[in-house]
Design a protein that fits this description.
The chain is built from twelve helices and 14 strands. It is globular and about 65 Å long.
């Protein structure tokens, strides 16, 4: 009798434990709060809603995804700690996250040591150049953003510019790359100003740019609150020189923070910002409109470029697991690297052993803010 009871208890325990053991654990650490929350908040919301959608449709390889997520608040030390916890305690098979360059860089060595695939949501070229075997990313690089902006400037006859950038990881990296490639596009940087991540007034820097003889346009390399302050100060000073911002401000939140002064600002952005302006034969139309619909229904706020980065990262990961036929880190890593023709919200990804981003400049659209909305520049 006792043996029968033991067998029944054992069977019951197995029945209860099996679904949990069968879950495919995917980790995330993003900046849901803190100075980079305009990036991390839509990323976190996107990951949660997509996991729910995927699980409702049957999961991956017949198993559910369990999302284990942490909020690093933009702190690189917290991001490193959470990445370690995800790997050692939570036993995830892959990680999506790193809202900023700084948090991403702190995660990269952790995943390399543990040999866990990681898809970053940050912009710096240094994340994928040189290629690190276990790290991939979905956002365009800051170097690509410089190139797209310089193409537009040159086409408009603007060849002498003033540069202003944040001293944070993103701003410093984009500034470096813009300086590096400006000459390739015939662009001359006549003035170069810097602001800190906690600065509340960039009037002195903008005044210096305005007073520099010959400046035909101003480019701000930055993300978060800084670019909105730059834009408001630009309007307060009555500067008429064209103002370009980075892809780090590609959300409706930037327009709201910057206010009326944002009208006329140009940025390199993604299709999600002008989804209603896409033609139905655009390769990204279906995926962009589907993501925008579910995000706006569930989150109750406009979809942004940053949520799109998270969308593509998770979808790339799920696609890789399906193609690999196994939720094992090495198999997932190899399958991500072999991704070809994957159309996402951000663009069409074609990765390789020498390219862990897989996007080119065609993934960027040049946009302008008009009457509080993004407009596609032809």
């Amino acid at each position: 009798m006792k043996s029968v009871l033991k067998a029944a208890v054992a069977a019951l325990m197995i029945g209860v434990a099996s679904p949990a053991l069968a879950d495919i654990k995917i980790g995330s650490t993003v900046s849901e709060t803190g100075p980079a929350s305009s990036l991390g908040d839509p990323e976190a919301k996107t990951l949660r809603m997509l996991v729910d959608e995927i699980n409702a449709a049957g999961g991956v390889l017949g198993e559910k995804i369990e999302l284990v997520s942490y909020d690093d608040a933009g702190d690189p030390n917290k991001a490193r700690t959470f990445a370690t916890r995800l790997i050692e305690d939570d036993e995830v098979v892959a990680i999506v996250g790193g809202s900023t360059t700084a948090t991403t860089m702190s995660i990269m060595q952790v995943v390399a040591d543990a040999e866990i695939p990681f898809i970053s949501l940050a912009g710096a070229l240094e994340i994928v150049d040189p290629v690190q075997p276990w790290t991939f990313k979905t956002p365009h690089t800051d170097r690509m953003a410089c190139g797209k902006i310089f193409e537009n400037m040159k086409a408009g006859g603007l060849t002498k510019i003033g540069l202003i950038s944040g001293s944070d990881g993103f701003g410093a990296s984009m500034r470096k790359h813009c300086v590096d490639i400006a000459g390739d596009y015939g662009i001359e940087i006549l003035a170069d100003e810097i602001y800190g991540p906690t600065d509340a007034d960039m009037t002195p820097q903008l005044t210096n740019l305005r007073s520099k003889e010959g400046v035909q346009a101003i480019l701000n390399a930055g993300f978060g609150q800084g670019p909105a302050i730059v834009t408001r100060n630009y309007g307060q000073l009555g500067i008429k020189t064209p103002l370009y911002q980075s892809h780090g401000v590609a959300s409706k939140a930037f327009i709201e923070l910057a206010g009326p002064a944002s009208n006329g600002v140009k940025i390199p952005g993604t299709a999600i910002l002008i989804a209603d302006q896409l033609s139905q034969d655009d390769p990204q139309y279906a995926v962009v409109t589907a993501y925008r619909k579910i995000y706006e229904e569930k989150a109750g706020s406009p979809a942004s470029t940053f949520g799109g980065y998270a969308h593509d990262a998770l979808r790339l990961l799920v696609d890789a697991i399906n193609r690999a036929g196994a939720a094992e880190p090495q198999a997932i890593r190899d399958a991500i690297e072999q991704t070809k023709g994957f159309v996402g919200v951000t663009g069409a990804f074609n990765m390789s052993a020498t390219d862990h981003l897989g996007l080119d400049l065609s993934a960027f659209r040049m946009l302008e803010i008009k009457d509080g909305n993004w407009v596609l520049l032809q």
